[in-house]
Amino acid sequence: MKLRLALRLARVMVHLVAGLATCAIVFPLASKALRERLTRRWSRKLVGICRVTVEMAPGAPVLEHALVVANHVSWLDIFVINALYPCRFVAKAEIRAWPVLGWLAAAAGTVFIARGNRRELRHIFKGIVTVLAQGQRVAFFPEGTTSRQGEVLPFHANLFEAAIDARVAVQPYALSYVDAAGRSHPSVDYTGDTTFVDSMFRILEGEPVRARLQALAPIEGAGAHRRELAQAAHDAVAEALRR
């Protein structure tokens, strides 16, 4: 077991180094389409090394241009979503401190928000509107922190206003991680005092994981109120996870 864990960890580290090199050398010169292809391929390989199989559950068609919101379960979430449909992410500043993965997330275009910094939030909000206006897909986790599997914390409404200003739809995603029997996978829990390193080792040591991503019906942003959008998205995700 210790040898298998060491080999998996070594593969993760080699893959991270390859990602660092790609971000440093290729990304500055790459087109948007190429960056998305490289991000998708790199994310698929990372979750594969972690023995996480990503599957798209039946749902609504995925929009190419939308404000994407999802429930937040694990550090895996960003890479699971990017393995299927790469997005520009907005995430909490703590993610920037993750060993290597934080730097890679930043290099892939993730924008980090410090909690309680209203001035920074307003600046980032304007940036989100600009990116959405360019026809890109932007994603964030409106719970603001990770939650227990199957549960959805209240959605913070502030950033939903970007969809209103950019006149784009909000598309909720429901994320779940299950074992071979279809039950919530215990290795993926990332709440309480669990650290990033603890979580990484649990996943590498545990049984294989199936990550399920379900795209839900878009919610029209133009003319809506941010609190209404946040509540509608929350209810859609919660209902999907109950099913």
UniProtKB/TrEMBL annotation:
Catalytic activity, reaction form: a 1-acyl-sn-glycero-3-phosphate + an acyl-CoA = a 1,2-diacyl-sn-glycero-3-phosphate + CoA
Xref: Pfam families: Acyltransferase
Keyword Ribosomal protein set for record: no
Gene Ontology CC terms, in alphabetical order: membrane
Domain of life according to the entry: Bacteria
Domain Phospholipid/glycerol acyltransferase: 66-178
Chain segments annotated as transmembrane: none
CDD domains: LPLAT_AGPAT-like (cd07989)
Entry's family note: Belongs to the 1-acyl-sn-glycerol-3-phosphate acyltransferase family.
NCBIfam families in alphabetical order: AGP_acyltrn
Protein name: 1-acyl-sn-glycerol-3-phosphate acyltransferase
Organismal lineage: Bacteria, Pseudomonadati, Pseudomonadota, Betaproteobacteria, Burkholderiales
